[in-house]
Amino acid sequence: MAPKESDDTMTGGEATGGEADDLRLRRRKAARYVVPVTVIGVAAATIGLVPALADSGDPDLPKISAQQLLDKIAASDVQKLSGTVKITTDLGLPDLGGLESGLLSGAAKGGDGSSADPSAKLTELASGTHTLRVAADGPDRQKVSLLEHAAEYSVIHNGKNVWGYDSASNEVYHSTVDESAGKAHGKAETPVPATPKDLTQEALKAVDDTTSVTVDGTVRVAGRDAYKLLVKPKQSGSTVGAISVAVDAETGLPLKFTLTPASGGAAVVDAGFTKISFAGPAASTFDFTAPKGAKVTEGDKAGKGDEDGARSDKGHKGAKPAPGHGGFDGFGEGFGGAAGPEGMKVIGEGWTSVATFDTGGKGVPSGSGAGGDLGGFLGSLGDKVSGDFGSGTVFSTRLVNALITDDGKVYAGAVTKDALVKAANTGK
User: Fold this and answer.
1) Which end of the chain has the smaller Cβ count within 10 Å, N or C?
2) Run of H or E residues at 74
3) CA distance 244 to 217
4) Which has the closest alpha carbon to 101: 76, 129, 71, 79?
5) What is the pTM of this model?
């Protein structure tokens, strides 16, 4: 009989004194392999991966507590793997006939970049269904390939080199890694998470006194026996309903990640392997030579205005990043870190924290005068709100919401519209 829930249910606030300190230490350990989800622009498009269909039948595994399962994830040290991941993200964005993907991709490229730049190409995962092939052989060699109809896009990290290749346009993007500093030169520094482990470790960063964590039975994923870890916010006001993670019983590697919204309905993010092997990939998997006739963009030359082509962090000192918007570990180390907008602050804590920053300009243009047509269009996508902060427009997805005030301040987070207004009133 598979265990449906551990007797050792772990909820925030139960441990005291030294036990609480030890609990926090173990939770931090579980989150140290974090690869954060990148928030793109004000809309904050959350990128996720879709799961394989779970195999029929629940495996009969030994009983395990929530803390033991967290420890198992933290102790997981899978260095070699290859497999296939199916990707679906349903943020509930308005149907703009594909325009939203173009806008996100264009914003990531800065308007004049290469189509092979990972920070541009991989934003396509922000919506729809996709298939990925992934491979890893230690911290210095990883590959993620996005399969599209008759074309393929790949990001390859091999030693100090990072390559992006778009077969559809026959374009290549190349940057190099400063291995001593763990940063990349050039713009290719915000790749998306490529496995359920990435999303799981990000979610575990939020495990604190505001969170309930339990073991919710067992499941088979991609032919592997796994435990199900269930993570739920205890706070009201979050748009996150629950996060379910299938954890490989043998290795502790997350095999499947599912995030369901508090509003109900289909999952916003589903992440899982359809196939997985822990055998080492062939060394040739990570070899890359630019095809004949391909247009090659050097990342070191693309970072205009930044010394040596490296990303400039000037102006970001002292700014507190919002949860989940920090640097990258694991696969992301080959591409550098990501910082939030200058002067960004965080209001609140836990699952209802809200990131805020000042654009230095004005809010959504009005329906008349310069920019009025665009303002009217943007305004039609949002809801007008008002409060002690003044007035503004809330743009909503099924997970991340953003408030742009009429005086140019932005409040964004995985919280409800009412929680955003409350944060704006507090931050006035």
Assistant:
1) N
2) helix 66-75
3) 11
4) 129
5) 0.72
* 360-414 tens-digit pLDDT: 777 665 544 444 454 454 556 788 999 999 999 999 889 999 999 998 899 999 9
Cβ-Cβ contacts under 8 Å for 260 (sequence gap 6 or more): 241, 242, 243, 244, 266, 267, 268
Q: Which phi and psi angles does 48 have, rounded to 5°?
A: -145, 175
Residue 339: burial class (beta carbons within 10 Å; 0-12, 13-18, 19+): middle
The per-residue pLDDT for range 316-365, each reduced to its tens digit, is 333 333 333 322 233 333 333 344 566 789 998 889 999 999 887 776 65
d(CA 82, CA 94): 35
By C-alpha distance, which of 6, 427, 31, 1 is closest to 212? 6
Looking at CATH, the fold of the domain delimited by 10-32+48-95+111-310 is given as outer membrane lipoprotein receptor (LolB), chain A (2.50.20)
CA 26 – CA 251 distance, rounded (Å)? 18
For residue 285, give the amino acid letter: T
Assess whether pLDDT exceeds 70 at residue 294: yes
Note every long-range contact of 408-411, with CB atoms under 8 Å and residues 24 or more positions apart, other chains counting.
408/358, 408/359, 408/360, 408/361, 408/362, 408/363, 409/356, 409/357, 409/358, 409/359, 410/42, 410/356, 410/357, 410/358, 410/359, 411/347, 411/354, 411/355, 411/356
How many Cβ atoms from other residues are within 10 Å of residue 70's Cβ?
25
Segment 6-15 mean pLDDT: 47
Strand partners, 144: 134, 155
For the chain, what are the domain ranges? 10-32+48-95+111-310, 353-426
> What are the tokens at 200?
């799981």
The DSSP bridge pattern shows strands 211-221 and 183-184 to be unpaired
